[in-house]
Amino acid sequence: MNFWGRFVQWVTNWDMWLAIALTLAGAWVVIRLSRIGINRFIKGSGRALTLRGILYSLVKYSVIFFVIINILDRIGFDTRSILAGAGIAGLAVGFGAQNLVRDVITGFFIILENQYTVGEYISTAGVQGFVEDMGLRVTKIRDAGGQLHIIPNGQINQVTNFHRGPLLATVDVPIAYEEDLDRALTLLERVCQQVAEEQKELIVSGPQVLGVQNFGPSEVVIRIIARVRPMEQFQIERLLRRRVMEAFNAEGVEIPYPKQVMFMSGLTKEENRPYGVETARG
């Protein structure tokens, strides 16, 4: 039989094409059911999300590999020789796939050591953001600007995880040199107590007034700190600044801003007082 005759016989082999169609449909059903089953039996967030993604990937790629071998076998390829030669081919491909192997091995140890999980905020490979997805080969991170960064696991050499333990909220409050320091410290202590009562769910310890942190050109800087739940430090810092501003306005405590004072030569200090000029607040 010539080539065209064999080709027509192969194309019109409806039993083969039906078997292939049933194999593809069965694979699609298995992948869908596996996803539903994994989501149903592995619930929760964080590490559970990571485990779900890994298991689903393993099932999906295993089914795809089985389908490819099955289809090749039905078409007429000798899959046994293909599988037997996979070892030699794999050795050859391995020299060109070192990065892929490194990514997979690194991903395995990231998961094994629980360095981070889906939903946590991390900094790695020059990127900061929330982990949206992670697998054996890549980690997907969404930064504050909304960009999605897909990082091969082999490039992840160091990880800073912002979700493991309380974080520090820090607020520096400037006080004019002319103000009564003890009075300002008392007001800040009162503000700290108020915020601690308002945010019991978010604050682990504090807030507390550490005291004078620095001396500026026109201000004394007082530092307030608090230990808060992961990723809540920005909210607590904003609330502390607002409460400090409200308290200072109510009690008439001046928050310093740039000033220019002109002195006329030959006049006394009292005579020069009216010439003080304030610049725009900065």
UniProtKB/TrEMBL annotation:
Membrane topology: Multi-pass membrane protein
MF terms in GO: mechanosensitive monoatomic ion channel activity
Protein's UniProt name: Small conductance mechanosensitive channel
Domain of life: Bacteria
Keyword Coiled coil: no
Originating organism: Carboxydocella sporoproducens DSM 16521
Transmembrane segments: 16-33, 54-72
Signal peptide: none
Ranges of residues in domain Mechanosensitive ion channel MscS C-terminal: 170-255
